[in-house]
Specification:
By secondary structure, this protein is α+β, with helices and mostly antiparallel strands. The chain has a single domain (about 20-30, about 45-145), classed as Fusion Protein Consisting Of Minor Coat Protein, Glycine Rich Linker, Tola, And A His Tag, Chain: A, Domain 2. About 15% of the residues lie in helices and about 35% in strands. It has helices spanning about 65-70, 100-115, 140-145, and strands spanning about 15-20, 25-30, 50-55, 55, 75-85, 90-95, 115-120, 120, 125, 130-135. Strands 1-2-10-5-6 form a 5-stranded antiparallel β-sheet. A 3-stranded antiparallel β-sheet has the order 3-8-9, with no helix packed on it.
Length: about 140
């Protein structure tokens, strides 16, 4: 049983969502959520209610593989940081680690900005969250169509 004043670190979770059309995306928990949270993702408190549930994409995130990048044979992985508001809106979407190609970095940012998210919740109430999202662009996945 977790007491309300007992603080535990939030587990880092990864979810792989790959899409054969445009590359793959995986979401990973934030590295050091600014506020301390009680419990871990999916852990239940009194009454069986989850103490903290991470924000997540409402639907699979599907990046658009830029045609110029396909023609040039450009591949890469972009790590995106995004704040997810209590309403589920992505805010402050930035590149954490570049693919080395501005064209892929921009496509990854647009993918996350255009996505809809289910906000994080703590004790049943919507809360702000920060996600690190990996966006991969692979020509092998592109050819699978």
């Amino acid at each position: 049983m977790v007491r309300q004043n007992e603080v535990k670190r939030v587990e880092k979770k990864s979810v792989n969502n790959s899409d054969s059309h445009s590359g793959g995306i995986s979401e990973a928990g934030s590295e050091g959520v600014s506020s301390a949270l009680t419990g871990t993702s999916g852990e239940s408190g009194e009454g069986g209610q989850a103490l903290f549930i991470k924000a997540r994409a409402l639907n699979d995130l599907v990046p658009v593989y830029p045609p110029h990048a396909v023609r040039k044979g450009i591949e890469g992985k972009v790590l995106i940081d995004a704040d997810i508001s209590m309403e589920g809106n992505p805010l402050n979407v930035t590149v954490h680690r570049s693919s080395g190609y501005r064209i892929l970095d921009r496509a990854a940012i647009e993918c996350v900005r255009d996505a809809e998210f289910v906000p994080a919740s703590c004790m049943g109430k919507a809360v702000h969250d920060r996600l690190r999202i990996a966006v991969s662009f692979s020509l092998q996945d592109q050819r699978a169509d």
